[in-house]
Amino acid sequence: MKYLLGLLMVIHALAFSPSQKIYQTKSGKVSFFSATLIEDIAAVNNQVDSKLSNNGQMIFQLAVRGFRFENATMQEHFNENYMESDKYPKAVFKGRITNISEVNFDKDGTYKTTVAGELEIHGVKQNVTTTGTIDVKADKVAAKSSFKIKLADYGIKGTLIGDKIAKELTITVDCKYD
């Protein structure tokens, strides 16, 4: 009987423990930069849907057509010739902060993080590990990271890659969560 009562108390404690908190945004920002001797190319997408849990799980999803360029022709070539946005309309990252125990969502501060997960671009999934920061200030949370990807790793091809478009892009993530 004592065993059954103890088991019931443990189940009750687990069932009614404080639940995880999920931070989210639909206006996150992802940008990329390509630098070559001939031309620099930059684009930004301000419609990134992201969720971040205080247990370290995170997801980022964006419409590829949401990237905006200074030059409309670049934007058209990006969507039609390189990213094939009609065929591959979304890019998705699913992963987790591997050192989540070092982040205190209840205390203001900037916390260095390591993130590992799977990035899908152009229909190709690749494992990615990178560093970033989680900023906590007045109960508001922001996540930032910058990392590089190789276009060839995602099956992105085109005649100008290597000349006008870098083979490796710098991706920057900046999300402020509600």
From TrEMBL:
It comes from the Bacteria. Residues 45-175 form the Lipid/polyisoprenoid-binding YceI-like domain. Pfam families: YceI. Gene3D superfamilies: Lipid/polyisoprenoid-binding, YceI-like (2.40.128.110). PANTHER family: PROTEIN YCEI (PTHR34406). This is YceI family protein. It comes from Parasediminibacterium paludis.
